[in-house]
Amino acid sequence: MQATSTTDWRSTVLLTLAGVVSAAHLAKLASVLPFVQGTFQLSYFELGVVVSTFNVIGAIGALMFGVAVDAMGHRRAVLAGLGLLLAGDLLGLASSTSLAFVLSRVIEGCGFVAVSTAAPSLITRLSAQRDRHRAIGIWSVYMALGSSLMLLAAGPVLNAFGWRTIWAIMGVVAASLMLGIRLWVPGVTVPPKAFLGWFGHLRASLWHPGLWLLAVTFACYTAMWFSVLTWLPMVTMHTAGIGVLGSAWLVALVIAVNIPGNVLGARLLQKGWPSGRLMLVGSSVMLLALGGIFGNSLGLGGKYLLCLVFSMVGGMLVPSFFSAAPDYASTPAHVGLVTGLLVQGSNVGQVIAPLLIGREFSSNEVFVAAAARPMYFFGAAAVACSLLLVLLSRSAVHAGSHAAR
C-alpha cells in the first residue's frame, strides 16, 4: 500500500491538529446553544437544524466528499477544508440573522467533512507501512481531543467575552493551521490521469463486504458513544441535580478518556492485533457496559464509572477503523474514497441515534429504559459485524495459504 520508506511525523501531528480543530468546530455550538438561540431568536426547529447540520452533511455526502478529495489531492483538500472552517467562522462572527448563521454552519460542516476525510488519507500515504498503525493512532484522538478541549475552554471564554469571541478564536486557529500545513506538509505526487475512471475505483472498493462491515460497525460505535454523551447530562442535571457547568465537566471527562483508549488501540495494532479482533473485543465490552449503565442495579456513581470504562474501551476501536480502511482502496490514490465511506457511517450513527432515543423517550416516562433499547441493538450489531470481519479475515488468510501451495 505504501510507497514511502520513512514516516513524516511532523506532517502527522499537523494533520491531526487539523482534525482536532475541525472536531472543536463541531463541538463549539453545544457550549453556546442557549446564547445563540437568544441572539437569533431561533425556534426549536431552527435550533435542531443548526445542531444537526454537520452530521447531516456527513451522513449524506461524505462518500462523495471522499471521491472529490481523491480528485483534488489530499493536501489541497485539507487546506480547502480548513479554509471552509475559517469562512464559516467569519460568517458566523458577522451574522445578524438566523439564516446567515445557519449558512455559516453549513460551510463549517463541509469543511469538517473535507478535513476528516482527507487528513487520515494523507497521513496514510505519508507513513511507512511499519508505522501506519502508530500514525493512524495519533490521528484517531482528533474527535475526543477536539471535543473535550472545546467543552472545557468554551465556558470561561463565553462568560468573559461572549460566544462570538469563540468563533473569532477558532478562525485564528484555523488560519494558523492552514499556514503551517502549507509550509510543512508535503503533497503526494499523483500519476497523471490517475483519477480517470473513478467510478470503476468506486465500484471496486465498494464491492468488498469487509468495507461495508467496517462502516456499519463505525456507525454503531458512534451511535452508542454519542447516545451515552447525550444521556449523561440529562441524568446528571435532572436526576442528580448537578448544575450545567458540573455536568459539562463530567461529560468532558468521559470524552477525554476516549483518548487513552485510542492510544492503547493503536499500540495493540502495532503489536500485531488484527483490527477485527480489536473491534470484537471493544464492542463486546461496550455492550456489557451498557447493561450496567442502563440497568437498575447501580447508583449514579457506579453508572458514571461504567461510562468512563465504556468510552475508554470504545476508544480502542477508532484506530482499528482508520487503519483497516486503506486495505480496501483499489489504489493508494483512492484512500479518500474508502475513508469517506467510514466518515459517512460515523455520521449516520450520530444522526439516527438521537432520533431513535427521542422517539422512545416520547412514549415512555422512564428515560433510562427507553434509551437502552436502541443502544442494545447498536451494541449487538457492532459485535456481529466485528465477528464477521474476523471470520472474513481468517477466510482470506486460509485462501492465501492454499493459493501459496
TrEMBL record:
The keyword tRNA processing does not apply. It is a multi-pass membrane protein. One of its GO terms (molecular function) is transmembrane transporter activity. It is found in: Cell membrane. Keywords: Cell membrane, Membrane, Transmembrane, Transmembrane helix. SUPFAM superfamilies: MFS general substrate transporter. Residues 11-397 form the Major facilitator superfamily (MFS) profile domain. It comes from the Bacteria. GO terms for cellular component: plasma membrane. It holds the Pfam family MFS_1. The keyword DNA repair does not apply. InterPro entries: MFS, MFS_dom, MFS_Efflux_Transporters, MFS_trans_sf. The chain crosses the membrane at residues 47-69, 76-94, 135-154, 166-185, 206-228, 240-266, 278-295, 301-322, 377-397. PANTHER family: CHLORAMPHENICOL EFFLUX PUMP RV0191 (PTHR43124:SF3), PURINE EFFLUX PUMP PBUE (PTHR43124). This is MFS transporter. It comes from Ramlibacter aurantiacus.
